[in-house]
Specification:
Blueprint lengths: L21 E13 L12 E13 L11 H12 L20 H15 L6 E9 L2 E5 L8
Antiparallel strand pairs: 1-2, 2-3, 3-4
């Protein structure tokens, strides 16, 4: 017996007042160093972080096998994006070439790489990067408000 007793569960009702959304989060870790260029142009000391990178997907419907997106596929793509950065200095990485290697920039670059490698999925909503406990940056794109 399944949790729905074989019936379709239609909550919340699709009456225009609310809508249901599924969310999937896939997280991986990265150990890498960086040094930010500070406001006056000087570089901070080179230091390591145990970064956590999380991709967030949201959508109103599940596919024919009952998932929004495959965890295994996303994890593999996310790991492939981050693999060249492991144990490296982010200042010297191709992914962050030409930018100050902040958590915000890493979130942006990972978001764009995920979008490209997963075929521009509309359900990719955000990438969060945790640089240290309590220090989290994110990147997502919002549709403009209609006039």
């Amino acid at each position: 017996m399944n949790c729905l007793n074989g019936k379709r569960y239609d909550w919340p009702p699709r009456n225009g007042n609310c809508s249901a959304v599924y969310e999937v989060r896939v997280t991986t870790e990265l150990s890498a160093a960086h040094q930010l260029r500070l406001y006056e142009g000087e570089l901070e000391p080179l230091h390591d972080h145990a970064w956590k990178v999380e991709a967030v997907f949201r959508g109103p419907e599940l596919d024919r096998i009952g998932v929004l997106i495959d965890f295994v596929t996303v994890k593999k793509v996310l790991d492939d994006i981050l693999k060249p950065l492991h144990g490296q200095n982010l200042n010297e990485s191709a992914l962050l070439a030409g930018v100050n290697p902040s958590a915000e920039q890493l979130a942006y670059c990972v978001f764009m790489q995920l979008r490209q490698r997963l075929g521009d999925p509309s359900y990719l909503k955000a990438v969060y990067v945790r640089e240290a406990p309590g220090c989290i940056a994110a990147y997502w794109e919002e549709l403009p408000n209609p006039p």
